[in-house]
Design brief:
Keywords: Membrane, Transmembrane, Transmembrane helix. The chain is an all-alpha fold. Helix content is 86%, strand content 0%.
Length: 70
Amino acid sequence: MRTGAIVCLLVFVSWVALALVQLWFAPLSGELFFKLTVTAGALFVVALAITLVVNEYGRNKKLKDGGYLD
């Protein structure tokens, strides 16, 4: 869970930094900035989903190994 949280945090912080640079200096075209925004959003969602699935799988495996689930 920790690795996924770090990846999500890095994606978010990187996007915020890019957005601030774009706001103040506008080095990118609007189209490219939009594409990078969509890409950052997709990476964030995929990293979060993978983290949650792996965490849930590990929790269920632990419960099955402990005899709490059938």
